[in-house]
């Protein structure tokens, strides 16, 4: 049904999807504007760490089922998996989707399917169909000809958890939506190639809102945990104990507080709902504000504590946006370390076992040193555990004695 599939964007979603399709016998053309990514993939390698992805990509390239290139080529289906970041005004930046649509439009032929996977505001899939239609007036599209369009346009939002992508890409249920019903049915055939979860059919707007709701739900729940953490500090209780006990109620499941919400999804996607319905999305907006305020709250406490020491040495453990990954995008940990460096709070030691060198934004301050966790803990007056990497679990409690410790993830309770 789909001898060849073209995947636009070889990032955290596109590359695993390309590998999953290729592993299931599809000829996949992976497209990326970054020539380093294209070269790496063609060499059977991956540009970022994700368990089991490297093996899947090298296998797919070795069998000739996957190759990468800079521009889309003719195919039977196109999957668009490009970033949808935030503009300054917190509306969605759809420029990457637009550029991807423009690049795909030129190679479309009757019978092709175009699927958007990028998390997008309500209405984007129909817009995508309109953009494609404008570029190709010689073909029919489902926003105008829903019954039997030449090109089918669908939405199938990604829902995999970084760190478990290669498992979840197969096992998760998928929401599969079309600009028209026929588009959804066609897209389901594509996703059934590698998905063992159920493919749930709906319309595009419902799917767009459902995807955003998943991440907004998590954000609201993390905000609840973060607020609880602040009020427990104020009231003299250990938030981890409070949560553990409350969670023993059969219908309570509070998430974990942390130094803030990072990554490119949970901290971003709820804003798409807020900008689509600003009057109605009050709780969702407030949760975003609570979570966005967390790093600054913690920063204030660390600066206050460091002020007790003459020439404070501050060890920050972890830079990634969450445990056991090397992804520093939108990381509250990185934000906190950068702020400490900019404000010249003291000598800064950073332990981050998942990177080989400091990111440029920290390196150029000249005030931050990347060291191993043992050195960081040994030499510090103030220890700020920012990420609950497994590598930090084994720190001996005796090594923490006499030091000011901020265990923001309750890893060492
Ligand atoms: N976090 C907490 N406390 C918690 C859970 C998470 O502070 O109890 C923080 C993490 O440390 C991190 C941030 O939240 O900074 C986000 O991490 P995450 O593990 O909750 O989520 P992501 O961003 O890695 O992936 C999410 C997932 N969405 C949901 O679980 C609803 C994933 O399934 C989505 O595919 C992904 O967003 C996406 O791309 O949309």
Question: Could you characterize what this model shows?
Answer:
The chain has 413 residues and is an alpha/beta fold. The chain has 2 domains: 4-197, 3-Layer(aba) Sandwich (Rossmann fold), CATH 3.40.50; 213-407, Rossmann fold (3-Layer(aba) Sandwich). The chain has 14 helices and 13 strands. Helix 1 (14-23) packs across helix 3 (53-62). The longest helix has 32 residues, at 204-235. Ligand SAJ binds next to helix 8.
- List low-pLDDT spans: none
Mean pLDDT rating: 97
Contiguous helical run count? 14
Strand arrangement in the largest pleated sheet:
3-2-1-4-5-6-7-8
Question: Can I get a quick summary?
Answer:
40% of the residues lie in helices and 14% in strands. It is an alpha/beta fold and 413 residues long.
What tags apply to this protein structure?
413 residues, alpha/beta, Rossmann fold, 2 domains, binds ligand SAJ
List the helices and strands and how they pair.
Blueprint: E1 4-8, H1 14-23, E2 27-31, H2 35-42, H3 53-62, E3 66-69, E4 77-80, H4 95-105, E5 113-116, H5 124-135, E6 152-155, H6 165-171, E7 174-178, H7 181-191, E8 199-203, H8 204-235, H9 239-246, H10 269-276, H11 282-306, E9 313-317, H12 332-342, E10 347-351, H13 360-363, E11 368-370, H14 373-379, E12 382-385, E13 404-407
Parallel strand pairs: 1-2, 1-4, 2-3, 4-5, 5-6, 7-8, 9-10, 9-12, 10-11, 12-13
Antiparallel strand pairs: 6-7
Helix pairs in contact: 1-3, 4-5, 8-9, 8-10, 8-11, 10-11, 11-12
This protein binds ligand SAJ.
Ligand SAJ binds next to helix 8.
């Amino acid at each position: 049904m789909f001898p060849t599939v073209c995947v636009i964007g070889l990032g955290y979603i596109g590359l695993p999807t390309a590998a999953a399709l290729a592993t299931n016998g599809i000829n996949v053309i992976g497209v990326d504007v970054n020539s380093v990514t294209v070269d790496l993939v063609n060499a059977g390698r991956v540009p970022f760490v994700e368990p089991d992805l490297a093996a899947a990509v090298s296998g797919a390239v070795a069998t000739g089922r996957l190759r990468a290139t800079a521009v889309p080529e003719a195919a039977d289906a196109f999957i668009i998996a490009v970033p949808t970041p935030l503009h300054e005004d917190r509306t969605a930046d759809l420029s990457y989707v637009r550029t991807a649509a423009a690049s795909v439009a030129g190679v479309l032929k009757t019978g092709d399917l175009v699927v958007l996977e990028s998390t997008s505001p309500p209405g984007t899939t129909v817009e995508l169909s309109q953009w494609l239609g404008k570029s190709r007036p010689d073909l029919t599209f489902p926003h105008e000809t829903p019954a039997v369009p030449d090109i089918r346009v669908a939405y199938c939002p990604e829902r995999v958890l970084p760190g478990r992508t290669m498992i979840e890409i197969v096992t998760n249920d998928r929401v599969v939506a079309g600009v028209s019903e026929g588009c959804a049915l066609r897209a389901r055939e594509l996703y059934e190639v590698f998905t063992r979860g159920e493919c749930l059919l709906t319309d595009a707007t419902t799917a767009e809102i459902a995807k955003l709701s998943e991440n907004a739900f998590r954000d609201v729940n993390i905000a609840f945990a973060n607020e609880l953490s602040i009020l427990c500090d104020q009231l003299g209780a250990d938030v981890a104990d409070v949560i553990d006990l409350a969670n023993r109620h059969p219908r309570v499941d509070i998430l974990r507080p942390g130094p803030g919400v990072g990554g490119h999804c949970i901290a971003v996607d709820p804003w798409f709902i807020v900008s689509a319905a600003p009057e109605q999305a009050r709780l969702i907006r407030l949760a975003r504000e609570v979570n966005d305020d967390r790093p600054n709250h913690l920063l204030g406490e660390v600066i206050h504590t460091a002020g007790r020491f003459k020439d404070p040495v501050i060890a920050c453990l972890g830079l990634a946006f969450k445990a056991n990954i090397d992804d520093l995008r939108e990381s509250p940990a990185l934000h906190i370390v950068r702020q400490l460096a900019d404000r010249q709070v003291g000598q800064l030691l950073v332990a981050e076992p998942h990177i080989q060198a400091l990111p440029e934004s920290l390196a150029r301050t000249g005030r931050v040193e990347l060291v191993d966790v043992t050195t960081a803990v040994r030499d510090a007056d103030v220890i700020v555990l920012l990420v609950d990497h497994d590598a930090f679990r084994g720190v001996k409690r005796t090594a923490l004695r006499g030091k000011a410790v901020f265990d923001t993830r309750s890893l060492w309770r």
